[in-house]
Amino acid sequence: MATKLKPTGDSGRKEIDSVVIRFAGDSGDGMQLTGTQFTQSTALMGNDLATFPDFPAEIRAPAGTTYGVSAFQINFASFDIMTPGDQPDVLVAMNPAALKVHLRDLTLGGTVIVNVGAFSERNLQKAGYAANPLEDGTLEPYRAILIDISKLTLAAVEGMGVNQKEALRAKNLWTLGLLCWMYDRDRQTTIDWLNTRFAKQPDIAAANVAALNAGHAYGETAELPSEISTYIVPKADVAPGTYRAVTGTESAAWGLLVGAKKAGLKLFFGSYPITPASPLLHILSNLRQYGVVTFQAEDEISAVCSALGASYAGAIGITSSSGPGIALKTEAIGLAFIAELPLVIVNSQRGGPSTGLPTKTEQSDLYQAVFGRNADAPLPVVASCTPGDCFDTAIEAVRLAVKYMTPVMFLTDGYLANAAEPWLIPNVDDYAEFPVEFATKVEGFHPYLRDEKTLARGWAVPGTPGLEHRIGGIEKSYDTGNISYEPDNHHKMTKVRAQKVLNIADDIPLQTVSEGKDTGKLVVVGWGSTFGAIEQAVRRCRKAGLEVSHIHIRHIWPLPRNLGDLLAGFDKVLVPEMNNGQLVTLLRAQYLVPAEGLNQISGLPFKVSDLEREIRARLED
Amino acid sequence: MNVQSPPEKLKPADYASDQEVRWCPGCGDYAIVKGVQRTMAEMQADPAKTVFISGIGCAARFPYYMATYGFHTIHGRAPAIATGVKLTNPELDVWVIGGDGDMLSIGGNHTMHVVRRNIDLQVLLFNNEIYGLTKGQASPTSKVGTRSPSTPMGSVDAPVSACNFVLGCNGRFVARVVDTDQKLMPDVLIRAKAHKGTSFVEILQNCIVYNDGVYSGFTEKNNSADGQVKCEHGKPLIFGKDGNKGLRMKPGKMEIEVVTIGEDGVTEGDILVHDETNRPLAQLLSAMQPPHFPVAMGVIFCDPAATSYEEAVYEQIAKATEASPPGELNALLRRGRTWTVDG
Among residues 273-292 of chain B, which lie with CB inside 8 Å of chain A? Predict the structure, then answer.
């Protein structure tokens, strides 16, 4: 490594338009916190950004092991970016295991900041290194900054009244301080956060702030290699308005609440803890002052059943889980379907089947959402495509559920749930109200009287005088609402229930083409969290003169009315999915189009470069 | 079918729906539905505010026969659905109906949790010690050795005692009654309704087709007086056709014994006085099995908590609202760190 010295400071800052940084360390090293704080500062600086938290399934895997490595990637730029970035330009490795797992992803010539204080014989062994990578040329292709962060952190907090263990834990803040210096990020937001977080332990707060400042000061004064400049990433040119950083979980929670208010209903949320869906329960549990009732049930079945009971009693019942939990809820979803009661089921998809990859993302529950029930029980299925979009999708899910008296499946995934992006905060008043009118008319009432247009049955809630009635899972007579085993009636009711759901296609926007022309040689069709990667890949290809378009589907069922015609206007249809081919099957079955799947089932989001390569390959032959 | 405008005083028949009852002729469920309708009339319950929620099984057909609100749901899940109903609208009077398979086998988990949470519901378990609707298999309350289509050589698994299970889940109201005991049933159900929190009532119900006579050893005219003891708070646990049998604690032991007043120097003063707030006593009484012991009937245990679950939930909502008034949703979305980009 060159060690030529050069004074640094704001005057010497190099302007760059984007950078991808990955923080990696032991799961006890506080990498998610470091990443989140860096994200907050970056958002406040006015950059566009996207993040990708990647953590192990174990809460505290044995320290120093490769499977205990936790990482947080952030991509920020002076322009509109859509993904957390394919490869990091900067890797922060807090221990040998983190280096072992993540070095292979670093761009050649990229910067790696290594905490050499953690490179003990024992840690090298645990990470599976036969030789010390700091000494054997492993780092040759990169710009390495070797710092004993552990030692410098201990020195920074010495005499501040915290014990050795607490002191060492502050090394993530020391690192954050250094990165704040490198990229000219404000430390104040982190200082404020620390003082609030440790309000009752002022010693710990002070030590952490000291570590943060020490890391920053180290950057200012240390003699770092000349290539390690400090940088400025100018503000992104984005639409005017008020922004915040938001994860898909936050925006989904707020969207559900706004949806309930637009419907004029109480929000009841029944849930059972499961990764990565639990944070939705946590956020809604903190919204009690909005009348939100949250219920941590004894199991997934009770979670959905309590939500269904709530809908029966006149609230909007919502339940949430991930794939395995949704499987357990299935029978009750069938009951909601035949009883024709509103219900929103949020599925934060994860890698599967069974326990699968609980902390990794996947979009492999499309079949489950669209087809996964016994008997003929089609449900509306909606999917969000970005963290901010979860807000709109949540409102839409509530709207469809109450208007059509049906359970609605709302798909997000582990990536959307955890990833943050800057969000132009919408004005809630801009969203149309859809107030629910409960049935009250006694004359001629029966529980399965339908609205002629929507085919939805009336919603008569217990407590309404004169409308006492009985519903349930047994088939009901179309004409009286009483139990009916008549063969023709079951045929008719099955058809009516399916038609009711299909009619929703008239009540949703027509499918648009998000990038490119309405016809052409190739269209890339996606759904869910692959939006950013596909959009960026298609844009790049179009810039290079390739004739390709991007369609991204929010309404998975029923599909938009014009989708079949749109797809027919292209020679080729490519469907990238983080599963083994599910939407592609649905499209082929519905439209008899020669759609081709492009499947990645690694638990990781698509890389833009991979998609770009695949698009080019389709247009070359 | 619907009670349109309640007359001055509703009669039991006013609580019956227009649906034809489809249990087997002679089924104990007929007696129970009559008993419940009588109870409703005695309480002058408002049909519009009364909800019956059931799972699956013969017992679970119950809501269809009541002229109230009703929801016939899925196997074992009635307590969970009822929880959502009561939490959404605490004004409603919610009754949960199920059988022994429904509530102790497939739905045992929900029974446990609804009881420990102590949400204000009345849970009526119709126990016939057999699976009826699926045609006669052994159930979790069947006695060891029960021969059934699934246990042709006799069941080998030990049964669960419904009342002891509920007491073990920290249940605060536990009662038992025989389906045909139309005198005791309304009293017990009125007490159950009055209890704030989960009230659990085990109704011993005869399945005339698959388990006929399972309780006839202590429910017939000629043996019920000797085979049952009625638990009444503050009264001695005396029973028997001559009114001279009683229960007492075996001296020096945590064990109940049957004694005869006037024999071996036993006087009425030696007989246990029922204390319905005493949980260990309730466990002992619930566990009594024929033929050596009478079966305990009536309110075995009642010890209400200061607040029921749904009250506590709404107290928290009120507290949270007081601490930080909700304000505009737009304000919620802008809480925390935001930044503005100028146009």
Answer: none
**pLDDT at position B337, please?**
82
Interface contact flag, A462 B92, Cβ < 8 Å: yes
Q: What is the mean pLDDT of residues A577-595?
A: 98
- Map residue B181 onto helix, strand or coil: coil
pLDDT at A225: 65
Whether A599 and A577 have beta carbons less than 8 Å apart is answered as yes
Predicted pLDDT of residue B2: 54
* Of B3, B49, B81, Cβ closest to residue A308: B81
Once rounded to an integer, what is the mean pLDDT over residues A151-165?
A: 93
Q: What is the pLDDT of residues A11-22, one digit of tens each?
A: 478 888 899 999
Mean pLDDT of A511-520: 98
- Please list every residue in chain B whose beta carbon sits closer than 8 Å to the beta carbon of residue A261: 329
What amino acid occupies position A482? N
The verdict on ipTM greater than 0.90 is yes
Query: CA B312 → CA A242, A289, B3, B120, B316, distances in Å?
Result: 38, 15, 33, 11, 6
Chain A CB within 8 Å of residue B315 CB = no
List, for residues A271-283, the tens digit of each pLDDT value.
999 999 999 999 9
Q: Which two tokens stand for residue A155?
A: 């020195």
Considering CB atoms only, which of B17, B73, B334 is closest to A425?
B334
Out of A43, A301, A463, name the one closest to residue B92 (CB).
A463
**B149, B152, B155, B161: CA torsion to nearest 10:** 40
- CA–CA distance, A252 with A486 (Å, rounded to integer): 42
CB contact B342 to A (< 8 Å): yes
Q: Phi then psi for A461, rounded to 5 degrees? A: -95, 145
Which band of pLDDT confidence, cut at 50, 70 and 90, is reported for residue A2?
Answer: very low
CA A470 to CA A472: how far, in whole Å?
A: 7
- CB under 8 Å to B246, separation ≥6 — which residues? B236, B237, B238, B239, B258, B259, B260, B261, B266, B268, B270, B271, B272
Residues of B whose CB is below 8 A from A483: 19, 64
